[in-house]
Sequence to fold (310 residues):
Amino acid sequence: MRFLVDPGAAPRARPAVRAWLLFAALALAAFAVQRALQGGLTPGGVEAFYLGPDGTEPVAAVALWEELHVGAFVWGFALFMLGALAAAAPAPAGRGLFRAAVAAAAADLAAPFAVVGAGGAGALRVATTALAFALVAALLVAVARATVPRGAPARD
Amino acid sequence: MTEGPLVRYRAPALAFAGSLVLLAATAAVLFVAKLGGTPARLAARYRGAEEAFRAPATLDGLLEVAIPHLLAIPLVLFAASHVVGWARGVGRWTYHALVAVSFGAALAGVASGFAIRFVAAELAWVKLVAFAALELALLAWAALLARVFLRRSP
Fold:
């Protein structure tokens, strides 16, 4: 993990960084598809998922905490990696984008509690989903452009 | 003016510290909600309880929980200790002790679930102590990250 904290190691780490970014992009895409399949792209779908088809069978509180626990690991670790790679890049990039992505991911993690607490507000979760995925995707692209310059040969 | 190396990593390090606190908090809620939070309830959760019509935990069920945790917890601890070590956020002895406690508690926490189920109910105390130690370790790493990266850069 030296390339995470040592900008000097970045050129040598380029193949590993490139591969990791590819996997991160795939994971983000898979996560987005899963969210869509769970109805996460429409307010009605979100409310049906968290409150039941007729709005009277909300998911158990423990399920919400489990989702938050897993999400804290997934978003937290992915954003830490992207942020560290952005900072270690030859031309540090995406600082404002990183902060915005962290804020959006935090809002996305909290949104299910708001949906269940309010007994609705599915649109909030749709908005946080769109914002979080768009900003993390944009950060990923910014990191890729900053750490893997087109045509730059890898140094030893 | 060029900025110090710590300032460069401030935002990702602090975000990571925040995620450690969130992980510790949600783990505490889930520990109480799903496992009961006391040695007696832990033992009943793993070994079953006739009066509550609760079946003992199966090996398959234990592995389903253990496998992701065996991957995720060391990864998180490795990243946190790696960054704190790089930033020299704490003395060598303290650093080594914290690494040992963190990984030791993580291992004991995962292993003790199997031990409670297949060895002895009294080992629920080990699970409880290991969980508390890991929680404190996660908070300690988060606090060290915050202290190191919020410190004014030289």
